[in-house]
Amino acid sequence: MVDQAEIHRMATSTNPDERRMAAKQLEVYFADLSDKQQAWSDLHDLTSDNDGNVRWRATDALARAFPHVWNKEEAWSDIHQLASDKYNSVQSRAAYAIGSVFLHVPQKKEALSDLHHLTSNEDYTVSAQAYHSLGKVSIYRAAYAGNEKDYETEMEKAIEFLKFLHRRRLILILQGSAFRFTVHFSQ
Prior knowledge:
Helix 1 runs antiparallel to helix 2 (about 15-30) and helix 7 (about 110-120) packs antiparallel against helix 8. By secondary structure, this protein is an all-alpha fold. The chain is built from nine helices and no strands. About 35% of the residues are buried. The model is unreliable at about 180-185 (pLDDT under 50). Helices cover about 75% and strands about 0% of the residues.
C-alpha cells in the first residue's frame, strides 16, 4: 500500500533526491491516492522546484496524472511553464506531456503553439519530441475530424511531422558516422 503521508514528506524534503522520488511516486500512484487535493498540491509544487531534475520528473508525473487532476487550467499552466524551462531535458518532457494529454488540455491553441515553438529548439531531443507530439496531436485531431477533408488534412500533417522527424534522425546518424569516419582516419 502506498503511504501518501510519506510521499508528502518526500515532496517537501530539503533533499532533491527525495523530492525526485516523490515525483516518481506521484507519477505511478496519483490516480490511486485518496487525498487528490494533497497529491495535486505536492505535484504542483514540484513542477516549480528549484532543481531541474525534480522538475523533469514532475513533468512526467504531471503527464500521467493530468486526466485525474480536477483543475485542468492550473495543470495546463504548469505544463505550459515547463515547456519554456531553462533546461532542455524539462522542455523535452513537456513536449511529451503535451502530446500525451492534448485530449484533456483546455488551451489547445496554446498547446500547439508551444509544440511548434519547441520544434525550433537546437537540442535534438526537444525538437524531436515536439515533432513526435505534433504527429500524435494530428492523429488525434484526425480521429475527431467532423468530415473526410479535415480527416485527410490532419493525417497528412501527421505524416509530414513524422517524416520530418525521421529525416532529422537520419541526418544525425549520418553526421555521427561522418564524424567517426573522420576521427578514425585522422589518427
